[in-house]
């Protein structure tokens, strides 16, 4: 065994095929990724069947590429980790079956990683962040505020009651014809737009609690575009930039407002010695949001952490690291662990790793 444990991580939950090798001393020894954006862009969103087939076509090559980058063989790994959910079940199964076969063939432990836990723990790969910390998890499919108390121990303070923030970006970008993926397209257009031109809703911001709502935003943008069509015969480039900027501002206001509520609850209930606000997930790559969250954390005396941009979107390194966090406290999973299209992260759900868990710690 190497001086520091080494884990291979596999990610296939949506439209990124990825493999990475990470060591316990937080070195990313290899990182290989195949983006399927071009394959799905023509449809304006992810097509599950196309995604699953692409995972089949590319995963084996990416694993070989990662091993070659690290100048290692499969026998050098201490465990094999793979996203076992939540996600598009066809893609999840590709990664899980591949990882199980490798673990069985090499005689290594298999670790079934919750994709959301991969995001939740990813900032700890690049920074020393103590538990408990407050996490804003924002992606295309999820929008949650959680207290990360430890590996496998999460307390959800709030979540979206309809669309996720990333979904709101994607739907709005599609509506405006800005392309896919929507988040980067909206952010780019917003740079030259007026965020105050269009009055868009900020649902729940006057309500107590930490839940989000974004479903009415797309409707409001559509109505604004229809009004422009009626008034001036079309939506011009300036209008698109202003709508993008107004959309980004509205989503940002909602995220900041609910996170502010969560900070108060986090500080009161946990009184952490090293209070920290962490953002993770694909939407965490939005530079405007990162800047606003930095200011919010400073205003409340919290340290702020965000992963580097490459670690925000789906990748194999975050899965390898989540596997490493579990491996180091003696946890692994049997080879009959299921692939799961749904897998809640918080404590109100069934135990995070309840299926045949080994060496679990409370």
UniProtKB/TrEMBL annotation:
Chain's gene name: tsaD
Subcellular localization: Cytoplasm
Protein name per its UniProtKB record: tRNA N6-adenosine threonylcarbamoyltransferase
Entry's Gene Ontology molecular function annotations: iron ion binding; tRNA N(6)-L-threonylcarbamoyladenine synthase activity
Pfam families referenced in this protein's UniProt entry, alphabetically: TsaD
Catalytic activity annotation: L-threonylcarbamoyladenylate + adenosine(37) in tRNA = N(6)-L-threonylcarbamoyladenosine(37) in tRNA + AMP + H(+)
Organism: Iodidimonas gelatinilytica
Domain of life: Bacteria
Keyword match Thylakoid: no
Gene3D superfamilies (UniProt xref): 3.30.420.40
Cofactor note text: Binds 1 Fe(2+) ion per subunit.
InterPro entries: ATPase_NBD, Gcp-like_dom, KAE1/TsaD, TsaD
Family note: Belongs to the KAE1 / TsaD family.
Function, in words: Required for the formation of a threonylcarbamoyl group on adenosine at position 37 (t(6)A37) in tRNAs that read codons beginning with adenine. Is involved in the transfer of the threonylcarbamoyl moiety of threonylcarbamoyl-AMP (TC-AMP) to the N6 group of A37, together with TsaE and TsaB. TsaD likely plays a direct catalytic role in this reaction.
Keywords: Acyltransferase, Cytoplasm, Iron, Metal-binding, Transferase, tRNA processing
Region (Disordered): 332-362
Top-level EC class as recorded in UniProt: transferase
GO cellular component: cytoplasm
Classification via PANTHER family: TRNA N6-ADENOSINE THREONYLCARBAMOYLTRANSFERASE, TRNA N6-ADENOSINE THREONYLCARBAMOYLTRANSFERASE, MITOCHONDRIAL
Main location group: cytoplasm
Residues binding substrate: 137-141, 170, 183, 187, 286
């Amino acid at each position: 065994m190497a001086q520091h444990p080494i884990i291979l991580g596999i990610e296939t939950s949506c439209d990124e095929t990825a493999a990475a090798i990470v060591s316990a001393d937080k070195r990313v020894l290899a990182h290989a990724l195949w983006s399927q954006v071009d394959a799905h862009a023509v449809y304006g969103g992810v097509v599950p069947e196309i995604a699953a087939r692409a995972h089949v076509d590319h995963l084996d090559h990416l694993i070989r590429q990662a091993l070659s980058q690290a100048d290692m063989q499969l026998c050098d790994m201490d465990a094999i980790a793979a996203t076992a959910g939540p996600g598009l079940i066809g893609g999840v199964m590709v990664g899980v079956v591949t990882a199980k076969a490798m673990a069985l063939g090499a005689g290594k432990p298999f670790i079934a990683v919750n994709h959301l836990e991969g995001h939740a723990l990813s900032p700890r790969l690049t920074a020393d962040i103590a538990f408990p910390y407050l996490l804003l998890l924002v992606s295309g499919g999820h929008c949650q505020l959680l207290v990360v108390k430890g590996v496998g121990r999460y307390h959800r303070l709030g979540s979206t009651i309809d669309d996720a923030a990333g979904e709101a970006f994607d739907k709005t970008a599609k509506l405006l014809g800005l392309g896919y993926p929507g988040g980067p397209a909206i952010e780019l257009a917003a740079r030259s737009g007026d965020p105050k031109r269009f009055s868009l809703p900020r649902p729940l911001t006057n309500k107590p609690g930490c839940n989000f709502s974004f479903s009415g935003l797309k409707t409001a943008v559509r109505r604004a575009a229809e009004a422009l069509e009626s008034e001036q015969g079309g939506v011009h480039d300036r209008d698109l930039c202003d709508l993008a900027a107004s959309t980004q501002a509205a989503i940002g206001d909602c995220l900041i407002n609910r996170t502010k509520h969560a900070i108060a609850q986090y500080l009161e209930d946990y009184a952490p010695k090293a209070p920290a606000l962490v953002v993770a997930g694909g939407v965490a790559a939005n530079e405007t949001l990162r800047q606003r969250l930095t200011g919010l954390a400073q205003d409340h005396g919290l340290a702020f952490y965000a992963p580097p941009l490459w670690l925000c979107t789906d990748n194999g390194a975050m899965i390898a690291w989540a596997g490493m966090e579990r491996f180091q406290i003696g946890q692994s999973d049997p080879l009959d662990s299921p692939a799961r299209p749904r897998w809640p992260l918080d404590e109100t759900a069934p135990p995070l790793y309840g299926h045949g868990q080994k060496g679990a710690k409370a």
